[in-house]
Hints:
The chain is α/β, with parallel strands linked by helices.
Amino acid sequence: MDYLLAALLLAFALLGHAALWVGFINRLNAIPLHYLVLRWINRPAMVLCGVIALLMNAHVVRLFWFWVDAPPSEPPANYPTVATYYFMVCWATATLAIVTWVYRKCVSERHPVSVISSEMIDVAQAVDIPLAHGLKARLSSRLPGNQFLQFEVRTLEVELPRLPPELDGLSLVHLTDFHMAGHVGKPYFDEVIRQANRLDADLVLITGDIIDDEQCLPWLELLGELRSRLGIYFVLGNHDYRVCPAEQLREMLAERGLTNVAGTHHLISHNDHHILLAGNELPWHREPVPFDDLPCPAESARILSIALSHTPDEFDWAREGGFDLLLAGHLHGGQIRLPILGPVLSPSRHGVRYSGGTFFRSPTVMHVSRGLSGMMPLRFNCPPELAKLVLRRERSGQGEASAVGGGRSSC
Length: 411
């Protein structure tokens, strides 16, 4: 019984230890620090996390054998009080993590969607040349179950509470997190573009982290091959400034027919109805356009407002502006989703709360894509994603009641 109790207390403490350090790393990486600074903090932090876990095991073994050999009334010599306090912190953290996990399962912010179609594209099987380049990518590609050379093409119906009747059925393709760096070959992105065009959407919207390496700048030509009826719009992400200045990259994308919405807005028309597009590159690049500068709908009309942000951490900004839909990426779905637990690593100030999926907090629906690639060539139970969203009015009829007049909350 003593062995079992010691093992259970140690396991619970290690769970809290992992939750504490993973939470710290997730939120650290949500801060707009230079990527080299983050790299030099992340690696020592991970090593320190492992060392402390080993010390916790050694401490429990030493303490257990003391209580077996000595009377309970006598504390061990040089008893490590700091270790005791750390164990208490870990037990409290583990309790909080479990309560939070249960609460999110019971009280979900997820917005229900209808999956119209889903198809897994295994690009490695479809081409005759190797797609993984570099030692890390080649070794990773041999791991059983690794999905980083595949992507899922999904068509989703998403209900918006205030969607005007004239825009029911509007479709958009959401692309994000290409991470063109060379470790995934160009044919992979050729197939992404081909599949995106096959979806035949009204709008194509890109939410950043397009390029990571100068050698891949010519690959931007691929984005010029994208097709849509109402245009292709983008914001940049935190990785995009690593190759060239952000303004230079924006100009290169504009030359290929893409329209920047970061720090500005665009008003387009479809079926004699207006669609407002605005972008937010915080906390890394441009400030978003002030809400006072955005057009307000007339009393008898509604503007469908869509916001682009690289990170879902700007959800509150979108809600404050009264946007109907926010598109984001950045978190890659966590890249690795554990059975039952789900994702663990998610560089957000909300941790894994918005790692991927569709969420609703009035008045805004947010879709967070799992992205198309990443600098870490590991994807387990979390394939890359190319999503087409078909916007629908609420079937409950509430959308019709609020579609007229209910513009942005700041109007």
